[in-house]
Amino acid sequence: MAKHIVKKSLALALTAAIGGMTFISSAPAASAESPTNVGLAAHALRAYREGWQYVWGGTSYGYVDCSGLIASYYGVGGVRVDMLASSSEWGYMSNGIPNIHGLGLHSPGHIGVYIGSGMAVDARDEYSGMVYHNVYSRSWTEWFKVAGVSYPDSGWVLFDGDSFYYENGEYIVNTSRTFDGVTYYFDGSGVSNIDPPSDAYQSTDYSSTSNNSSGNSNQSYYDDDNNTGYYDDDDDNNTGYYDDDDDNNTGYYDDDDDDDDYDAEAERLAEEERQRQAEEAEAQRLKEEAEQREREEAERKAKEEAERKAKEEAERKAKEEAERKAKEEAEKKAKEEAERKAAEEKRKAEENAVIAEYDYEDDDESKTVASIQTRLYELGYLTNKATGYYGEDTVNAVMLFQNNNDLEVTGIVTAKTYKVLKSNKAKNDFSFLEQGAFDGGTSLPVTALQERLAELKYYYDEITGFYGELTSSAVKQFQKNNELEATGSADPDTQLKIFSSDAKVNPFAGSVSYGESGSLVAKLQKRLIELRYFPGVVTDKFDDATLEAVHSYQKAAGLKEDERLTAEQLEVLYSDEAVKPADYSTMKFGFSGEDVAQLQSRLASLKYYDGKTSGVYSKAVVSAVENFQKDFDLEVTGWADEKTQEAIKTESQRETVHAGEQLILKTAAISDNALAGIADVKTAEIVLNTANEQTEFTRMLVVLGTVFAAALLFAVVFIAELKKKAAAKQYVHKK
Predict the structure, then answer these.
(1) CA-to-CA distance for 428 and 135, rounded, in angstroms?
(2) Average pLDDT for residues 473-488, to the nearest whole number?
(3) Distance CA 414, CA 356 (A)
């Protein structure tokens, strides 16, 4: 039994020595096949299935540690104590692991092999031995491609009896592909539902027993048949490089239970080798522990990269990385400290610096108070424009602003208050205004609104403090020109725009257009009535009837028909240059003027009109004209065209002459009647009748006739009185 142990130990020692030389030179062991990723995965899987033992520093068949599991496959892995650093490609497990067989797995102080489909194998420790587990059940931090192993870019591979297909360096999953008319389906583990032709494989699992079961009887890295392999671990009677069977034949190392080839020298060498390996393993352990402590310290200092674990890498790279992290951390802390100090200083300045307060007043150089007042006016806290003096109104406005904007309410404008006041985030104090709203007490929002609209050339009427139809019309026009919803109501957003410095001045200032109302419209309607384009009444509203009259004027004046009259066009309209309509002389319903008053007088003298001489062509005038036209065989329209006017004038003059003749006769009769003692009664009757019958011209004649008659009457009465007195004297005298 002792002999068996010695020979076993010697074989292990020499194997480790050979393996160590192989790692240093980074050259794989000679074999019939080159190292592949599926070969490495199968190697690890076989180690698990055969129950290899965990031996610190071991790299021989059946006896390995974590890195020895990889190194025992063709001597791959590069520098054994830092296989991750020897890799050409690696990544963090936190980002997921690629679909690649035979990847190396790393966590601080430990190495494993990813065999694909979410599973891994590692030589855990002396108690656990070989462990087959879900790759995410252990805290692996990085994956890496093992140095010396070839990884396919594309094509078929055979692993553990299953077929996989690689594209872009990874085997595909949950999909299908069609090759040469055959469709292959790949499940979530990447396994194809059918195998391709045997010559389609780019890489084959030569170390897997499943491959041997498929009929391969050639020499492989491990040999479990009746032929000779690198390791001959079968139960035949043949010799391999290592012969670990139970026969009585001799291999290069004979580890069976016979008594052949006992060599004391070999046992001594094996003992020395074991001692050397133990010392190297201890030294290696101490070195790895020191490196682990160094990495943990670097990770502690670099908190911002908590997800990244310290790598086991060369001393130079670790030192540079630690210096870089330390520099970044120092710069970050310095920047944060500088920002903290700056913020603290700024906060103190905002709290203590006074920009303006009560009784401050601007001078020729400073306009600070005016600037504050202007902004408060724009936000609806002040209803008056800037004065440059910080009085009680300004104090109250500032206090209200501070309260609405969650600032300390002091009435003093500090740097902090000033900053918020000037920012786009400053809250306004506008309330919703619509038709029917009116000012009350010291609150004058409607008055301020009307004044601002007047300043912007939208409002032309009296500042009343009442939100009526005229104010609504002005607001609606402002909203249209400033790309706001044209509602006519002054919501807070509309008021904020109206009182802002970038509010658009009315581009059509002084003009009137359809839908508007106000004094400008009333003035337009009056002028259109004067020019006989508009037969309606003044309503202050630019309605359909007004628009029709405007179109008539525009057509007569050679202008393009439009819903708007510009300021320049209105200037011409209100001048003597305004074009009159072709039928200007024809008087119609709604027209007014001296000619209408004259027409009313003439119709009255002809007993067709008994209304007031108002100068307005009313319905009563229309009816009178219609009756006249009927009596004189004219076209009955109710309009006084030139023909009708001439007929009325002629008939009125005829009546005037007739009235004059009658006046003379009546005057003569007055004299006779006066002498008879009844002149006073008849004279009054004549004057009264004459006043009701005459036209304007007739009235003048009547007045003159009356004066003449009165004078004549006075003379007659005077003479009669003299005669009476004379008769009385004579009577007295006779008596």
Answers:
(1) 61
(2) 92
(3) 7
